[in-house]
Amino acid sequence: MSVTLKDVAQAARVSVSTASRALTGTGLTSERTQQRLTRIARELGYRPNPIARGLKTGQSRLVALLVHNLTNASFQVMAEVVQARLKALNYQMLLCIGGDDAQQESDTLTTLVDHRIDGLIVVPTGKNGAQLKTLAKDVPIVCLVRRDDATDLETVLADDPQGAYLGTRHLIELGHKRIGLIVGRQDTTSGRERLSGYVRALREAGIAKDDTLIHAGHFVPETGASCCRKLLDLPRPPSAIFVANHEATLGALRVIAERNIAIPDDLSLLCYEDMPWFEWHRPAISIVDNGARDLANLAVDRLLHRMDAKGNGNDGVREYRVGARLVQRDSCRRIDAASKPKSPKSKSSAAKPAKV
Amino acid sequence: MSVTLKDVAQAARVSVSTASRALTGTGLTSERTQQRLTRIARELGYRPNPIARGLKTGQSRLVALLVHNLTNASFQVMAEVVQARLKALNYQMLLCIGGDDAQQESDTLTTLVDHRIDGLIVVPTGKNGAQLKTLAKDVPIVCLVRRDDATDLETVLADDPQGAYLGTRHLIELGHKRIGLIVGRQDTTSGRERLSGYVRALREAGIAKDDTLIHAGHFVPETGASCCRKLLDLPRPPSAIFVANHEATLGALRVIAERNIAIPDDLSLLCYEDMPWFEWHRPAISIVDNGARDLANLAVDRLLHRMDAKGNGNDGVREYRVGARLVQRDSCRRIDAASKPKSPKSKSSAAKPAKV
DNA sequence: GCCAGTTCTGCAATCGTTTGCATCAATGTT
DNA sequence: AACATTGATGCAAACGATTGCAGAACTGGC
């Protein structure tokens, strides 16, 4: 069917081994035959069969990225980054969707090693630590976004404590004292870390932590909505809400719209993680960017390093943190009318239609 | 490193060939040895090496899905559907991102056949027809969402003419006579087809086509915004806008919000293709659902059929159309106060906050 | 012109499977 | 009891590459 090394060798009247050596450039062939063979190979349209090669070398030029889903915008950009990087190095990315489900993750993992992938970047569910640990002996693995505490795998994390801190501090600097927090489950790292960043910012500013302002849960939009309602129904509702979980954002926005609450005039809103439509929303929604792009790039860097280092890429570092970044748009407003009357960055919004 | 067939054979004191036959269940071994070998294989934790097997059989149990990007919500659900289906059949999905770029598509395609994929579902750019045609000789291929006119590949398409027709008719039935259309480039199939559906609905209803109401272009949100502005700035602006291109929706929504136009009171809005946040938007946005889920499922069906039929799965059918569906939410409103005063499905919105 | 040293090339084994063919034992037939 | 038939097994050759080892060809020094 397709042209094999044998065909090339025959056409060039040399042995297969010579052909192989010439084409892989081992430097063990004469300059002349090398050139002649590359030419002939090109003419014949020879493309090495990665399967055959893989059988012999134990490599596949396949690198897998295992994420929970593709609806999460962060995972999308990560996938695109990883794909682009790998492709440039002549690897194929195997994108797998694990659905944040232990069983599915486990199945996928075994299939992947069966296929002799050369490397793996995984967003672990945290429930297959033992398996990951075993696999790590055979394949370079880098964890992304989440840590699996049962392993000591190299892990690239977003700096959630810092991100939450940055966001909260921003709101405080705008004069907010009662800041609602809608955050993820406290049995996830990110849930805990984002809460801690929030708390730290409050403490530094000397603002007492008010537990009625903090809502944590396993988030889907519905939960985001109900948390948001609870916050707004408070006797003294917050002047700003920090939605530190992107799933919850949809629900919160909905409730805010339903109640005709004007952002940022009546309420400031800050979200964690970007979504492509946030900047097209009106008002454009300010966010804390978790740095998905940087995360993906760093993960690829680390993985490649491990893959090169053949078994011992252990630089001692176990954990990398990628800095978060505040992206100010129009959904947060300065409120302390008394002390600092200077107009905030965000525009006055709604009232007069901005002719464009 | 890992357990090979030889190990199993040795442990069972049979030859490798017997082991192979027993484990692949060719029926050429005695019941007893078959059971004994499966047991031993399980005990030893034997997992067949797909690479070695692939080398011999020419198969890889890899099926590729090549899409343009992952930001498009339709592609996301398609990817998830394809992955789920394939997985159930013990195939691994290779998800590739082609970026709607001819060169990248071409590169990816060659890498994929190099890896001896067993099948391919591709959203073609339309610029590598020749290549696709050649590859189709080696690998079963099904085109998805777009047709490549240079080939005669089996293609699963959304029924865009019907979808656009349905949407437009819906608006007409609600009493709208001036319906703005924001649609994709006319050199794409979907662009043309959606326009034609719109025109047909108009004609059927005896409404004259007004070219000032139709805007087509290569869409990014910015273009969507400018088209929307043009429509709203018309001396007699439309009472409804049909955004028949999902990229454009963001921009349109933005302009509408900027100008403080109330939906659906001042303007009805209908979009093509769903986005996860559409139903969380306030008002929830009515859409024409292109049936991404069904498309993906059908594409998988056809591909599997071809893969089974080994070379001749040609049933004569070249093109499959998956019906579109109207999903009424709250962004379209009945307007002919005179003839049919019955209140529309959509609620009155804005004015009084709906306590929830 | 011969020999040691260096390059280059080819033979053949190997990776882990599958599979055509031959062998062999067990069974049934006469 | 001899023979044909069936069913289970093993041997060995593939699949398409890589690679250790040995031999061939060339180089230069004497």
From TrEMBL, chains A, B:
The keyword Metal-binding does not apply. Residues 3-57 form the HTH lacI-type domain. Residues 332-356 are annotated as: Disordered. One of its GO terms (molecular function) is DNA-binding transcription factor activity. InterPro entries: HTH_LacI, LacI/GalR-like_sensor, Lambda_DNA-bd_dom_sf, Peripla_BP_I. SMART domains: HTH_LACI. Residues 340-356 have a biased composition (Low complexity). It holds the Pfam family Peripla_BP_3. Keywords: DNA-binding, Repressor, Transcription, Transcription regulation. The keyword Cytoplasm does not apply. It comes from the Bacteria. This is LacI family transcriptional regulator. It comes from Bradyrhizobium betae. The lineage of its organism: Bacteria, Pseudomonadati, Pseudomonadota, Alphaproteobacteria, Hyphomicrobiales.
